[in-house]
Amino acid sequence: MGFARGFCSRTLIWLGLSLGRYSFMNIGAIIKKFKDI
């Protein structure tokens, strides 16, 4: 039980970090587009 919970939380943290990095890159690209306008 404890191991499964730790594994799930680690997976969620990893997903959150990768998603955060991806969305941060997208936000940067969107800001660049708005600056070009």
Overview of this protein structure:
- This protein has 37 residues and is mainly alpha-helical.
- The chain contains 1 helix and no strands.
- The protein has one helix spanning 2-36.
Task: Briefly characterize the structure.
The protein is an all-alpha fold and 37 residues long.
Task: Name a few traits of the molecule.
37 residues; mainly alpha; transmembrane helix
SSE topology sketch:
Elements lengths: L1 H35 L1
Keywords: Membrane, Transmembrane, Transmembrane helix
Q: What is the count of DSSP helices, taking H or I runs of 4+ residues? A: 1
Q: In terms of per-residue confidence, which ranges show pLDDT below 50 for 5 or more consecutive residues?
A: none
Arithmetic mean pLDDT: 85
How many strand segments? Answer: 0
Keywords: Membrane, Transmembrane, Transmembrane helix
Transmembrane segments: 12-31
